[in-house]
Amino acid sequence: MTTPTAPATRGTERFLASELAGEANFLIARARSRGSAEANARLAPLGLRVRSYSVLSLACSGLHPTQRELAEFLSLDPSQIVALVDNLEKDGHVRRIPDPNDRRSKLIDSTEAGQALYERARALTCESEALSLAGLSAAEQRQFLALLNKAAFPPN
User: Fold this and answer.
1) Domain coordinates in residue numbering, the chain
2) What is the pLDDT of residues 28-67, one digit of tens each?
């Protein structure tokens, strides 16, 4: 049995050579965690977090998603979507409207107040994204986003 020796360097930089630092799932989770923390901090004064912002964004998109579609697209449990929509609705930012194609279903639509909140929040998330991607050139940012989109939404 060997006795561990003190590392020559301290801090997280020494882990960059580890196998873990080369694993896509770890890197994606780390980047997501850092980006979400930054975005949540910027959105907090508006009473939003990344998840509620995501629901609000899609409600403001003009696509009129159902709660089921929101859950699927955002990879969240339907019960989480219900709570997010409930809170946004309670605050007057979204409303549930009848789906003309399925009376049992409701579409999620933004209110005027929700649209105004979204515009303010979008500016903050753009600032957060710029900070997250600051180490990349403009071309690298475009490529990175394209590759993330491919990984997030693979063809069936």
Assistant:
1) 51-149
2) 999 999 999 999 999 999 999 999 999 999 999 999 999 9
